[in-house]
Amino acid sequence: MNRPAKRGQPRQLVGQPGRVELGGTTSSVRGVTMVAMVIETWRGDITTLEVDAIVNAANSSLRRGAGVCGAIFAGAGPELDEACAAIGYCAPGDAVVTPGFGLPSRWIVHTVGPVWQGGNAGEDTLLESCYRRSMEAAVAVGARSIAFPAISTGVFGFPPERAACIAVATVKSTSIPELDRVILVAFDDPTYGYYRRLLAG
Questions:
Q1: Per-residue pLDDT tens for 73-131?
Q2: Residue 29 reports pLDDT greater than 50
Q3: DSSP secondary structure of 140-189
Q4: Taking all residues of the chain, what is their mean pLDDT, rounded to a whole number?
Q5: Residues 36, 26: contact at Cβ < 8 Å?
Q6: Angstrom distance (rounded) from CA 158 to CA 150
């Protein structure tokens, strides 16, 4: 049975260095400025976060992979393999949702990022779509908080700094009133540094 998610609160594990940096998007209604969404970065293991939804950087066949994908499958348990097999396919740039099963998060949003081919094959546009579609898919099942890994920067080869710029810009520019909090999770120090600098700027 899934544990209820605490609204966007990261659970820091011993030995996992990380500090939350806050950013925010705002909107104006009749001259009154309101904070629409809090954007954070955190250094650590995405599978430990007690948020409504975490994002899996998936492959198109939605099969268990390596890296963060493998860790998510391991944490969720064999029910996730069965749920993904039932869905069967996700197109690059799109997103599908499964329950979180054994993870602290209520939902897992699976999105397929682009494989880096030098930057002239529409990779940036596909990566933008991954972030935008993941947020839309999460909200569609009732999530108000979501955590992202650095999509496509592992075996898919997307340059990490370029990917971080796209992640931050897309999250900031996507207006979804139902979403309260977005956490950009870095598994290494360089990516964490990119997120911190971009959110501070």
A1: 999 999 999 999 999 999 999 999 999 999 999 999 999 999 999 999 999 999 999 99
A2: no
A3: HTT-SEEEE--TTSSTT---HHHHHHHHHHHHHH---TT--EEEEEESSH
A4: 87
A5: yes
A6: 10
Q: For residue 190, what are the CA distances in angstroms to 30, 52, 78, 150, 174?
A: 41, 26, 33, 11, 25
The two three-digit tokens of residue 93, written as one number: 């740039």
Please name which of 53, 48, 41, 47 lies closest in space to residue 12, comparing C-alpha atoms: 48
Quick one: CA dihedral 135, 131, 92, 48, positive or negative? Answer: negative
pTM above 0.90, yes or no: no
% of residues, the chain, pLDDT over 90: 81
For the chain, what is the largest distance between any 2 Cα atoms, rounded to a whole number of angstroms? 51
For 197, half-sphere exposure in the C-beta direction (CA atoms, 13 angstrom radius) is 10
**Rounded Cα–Cα distance for residues 61 and 58 (Å):** 8
Residue 10 domain flag: no
CATH number at residue 188: 3.40.220.10
In this structure, is residue 7 part of a structural domain? no
Domain that holds residue 101: 21-200
